[in-house]
Amino acid sequence: MSRAPRWLVVLTLAVLAGPAAAEPLRLRGDALASAASPVGLLVLSGDGGLAHDGLHTVSAEAMVWLGADADGVTGDALVMALIARRQDGRAQVRVGRTVVTAGALRPVHLDGVAGRVRLPRRIDVELFGGVPAVPKLGAHAWDWVIGGRAARRLGDSGSAGLALLEQRSQGRLDTRELGLDAAVARGRRDLATRLAIDLIDPTVADVSVVATQRWSAIRAEVSAQHRVPSHLLPATSLFTVLGDVASDRLGGGLRWKAAPRLDLVGDLGVRRIDGATAADGFARATLRLDDAGRGAITGEARRAGAIDGGWTGLRLAARVPRGALTASLEAELVIADVDRGRGRVWPWALAALGWACGPWDAAVAVEASASPAERGRLDVLGQLGRRWELR
Length: 391
Known about the structure:
mainly beta; 22-stranded antiparallel beta barrel; 66% strand
């Protein structure tokens, strides 16, 4: 397994365990394991206050992936950072391995420093720099990334920002991107937009406009979006694996609070991929089982069309808490229009049971799926966590 930089470990321990702590030191550890391969994830976090009139807090977080293969035990640090911030939110600095998102720019995984400060005249400034994250905390010579964002807050419910990113690989220019973003809310109306431009070969990498109108129980939304692969978000289910692709999309949706615990959502749009145009949309109903929303039942139907064959999906999810236990189930079924040698029906399901008692919590889950990439897959996942508070 890779090791964290020695300076980061020493600095983290010195800040979190030193006598300067004015507030209780809170620590948390989580271990997650999967039967596939096998692999695991170790998550550690801690935070406390420093004795500077109670204005500052310092926290640390680490997320370490562990695994084993034919070559032996492997591992890597996904996140390992020390964060210092003012409690009033006017300044923050993050040091270590982290993921940075600034305005309309693409997410950046780097080993370095990222900071944010609020200046007079409602101006916010973000700066980050370092080397692109390389597996096992490695780095190539003359690899670096630097960027920043300046924004102006518009009243209490809006802002407009300008961001710039440059990344080099072995000294050669790899990415240079300009980002513009703006959002404003006026009464029952919201408008948000972002634009990212690739400056090397000037093209639009990501652009979106979302307009929202709210009434007492209904919210209507109209959106337009163009996105390239570098700006896609990580997939979290079979629906997002198949549906979140680089494309152009124009659509609109409605959200209706039909009852105090019942939300109905619908969306219909047109998507263009590689010159082909097709309609897509979904309808979703969520019934909360308690006022706090700890328990809920969700049903969803989704349609994604394409000239060469789309798919229809159904999803059911339930989360039911009972005392110290919480049971949850998610199931998706995708039916493809065309069989390309992997069948037309692709199921995905996840069943989990969680337990929480005092400072301890644990969970176990079983995940089963079939997809265009794999005819069948079965994973067993486990999680164990504990919280500490030291005075």
